[in-house]
Amino acid sequence: MADRAERRRPDRHQFALVLLRRIAVLALVLSVALWAVPRLLVEFGVVGPTAQERIDEAGRAIATARAYGGGAGLAPLKAAEDEVARARALAQQGREREARHAARRATTSAIEAQKMALVADTEVRLQAEIVYNDLDRQINDLEKLYAEVTPGLEKEQTAQLLSLMKVTRQSTGLLFLAYEQQDYGTALDREPRARQAVESARQTLESARR
Question: How do residues 34-59 score in pLDDT, each as one tens digit?
């Protein structure tokens, strides 16, 4: 009877609650430790990439941004270059933790520069495509106009117009070649001269028709 009474002690439920609370607290402490300890180990360089590895990573990200067309005037690229230079200096001074932080900032800025360069490159490509298609249409119109104008003209005047068409084709051809080689920036640089040649040829042909 005494053993049965002992098993039914009124404070047994309270004891179970205390035990469960302690288990819950322990589980919480363990979960925080599992979250925080690896980060602290990485933060202090015990595990994870070294400062030099972070610097190399940033250098590759910067090179990629340049390959995507990022120029010296791109602010995130300039920030990345400054941070990676700072990271190298800190690493040489033995300040590994600060060097890693600087290198990570450099990588983040370089990735932002990559995105901006890609957007700019897409805009240039689309603009070059518009110019290419428009000039291609204008050249075709010039060919039709030439075919309409030259019949019945004197041989010398026809030869002059033919020479003019060759020069116009060469001017636009350089732009077309740059576009087809995916050198979109050069194609846009050649646009003013090409348009001037096309417009001059059109005016000359219209004058000959009158």
Answer: 555 445 444 555 445 788 889 999 99
